[in-house]
Each structure stands twice: as C-alpha cells, then as structure tokens.
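HUMAN: Spend a minute on the protein record below and explain its fold to me.
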Amino acid sequence: MSRSRRLATQAFVALVVVGAGVVLLALAGVPDRCPPVGWDGATRVAVRASGPAEISAAGTTYRVGGRALLGYGLGTDTAPLVRLGPLPHPLEVTLDVAAPTRRDVGLAAFACVRLTRGRDVWTRRAVNSEIRSPQWSLPGDSWRVASAGGGPEWPAGEPIEMEAWLAIDGRPFVLVFEPFALGKGG
C-alpha cells in the first residue's frame, strides 16, 4: 500500500472515531456543571416552604422561589409515539424571581439547579424564560420563570433537598430550599 493511501486511510479512521465520540456524547448528554465554576463565595439564601425568600441586591428587593414535581401532565412525555409499558413521570423544576421593574428582573438569571434524594443527585442547567410584566404599565411586579426538566422518576412522597444558583447583576446567590416531599404535578 502506498504511503499516501495509508495516510488517507488513517485520516478517515481518525475522523470516524472522533465523529462517533461526538455522537455518543450527544446521545449520552454531557452532565451540566452545577454548581457553576467560580461560585464558591456565593451568598446562601434560605427559602422556606411557606413562601418566597427576599434578596436585596442592586438596590432592589427580589422575591425568589421554586418547586419540584413529578411530571404527570400530558405534555411531559418526549418518547416515541408507540410505547410499551407505563408512561414516565420525570422530575420537573420551576424557579421564579420577581422584582418591581422589568429592568430589575433583567439583571437576574438562574444558572442551574441541584436536587438530592438520599444519595441520588440530579443537576440540570436552568432555562430562563422571557421577562413577564403587567400590561399597559399597570402596577405590579415583573417576573421571570426558569425551568429544568427531564429528571429521574423518584418516588412521590420522598423527601428531597433542592438548591438553585441565581445571579443578580453578576452577584452569585445559592437558594437553599427547605427539604420537602416530592409531589405529583399536573
């Protein structure tokens, strides 16, 4: 075999190996980095089960909260049209932040969420929604919701712990939610 043909074969094999690796990583889902890098000194904020917590940052008071539920609604299944066996009920997380103005809410964004059940840990990057505001400049707060879905199907009623990472005007916060029993969502 000639030298150029051998080099072409080796290049082709290397390309196939790299391509297969990329496809396998995409199918496996590279785990999200949670907590985010560089957030070691973040301010910890306790969030009680009775309601949202308040954070003072950037000259504004923000109200933050969240919940985690098992997805029992119709739109939670992303599997093929034909399924053998029971429908899954993946873990779904919703986080929210509210402030007096759109501009204030625009300074806040969730980075990720981590849930713990015993020794099991699930993390996911949070997907932030657009900012919502009262119409026609009516009085009231603006808010943003973030979500993370597709989690494991842990048993309903099990106690879980939840933490969420939130940045407000570049200042990092870790929301530490009071442990709660995992419920079924709609």
In short: DSSP finds two helices and eleven strands in the chain.
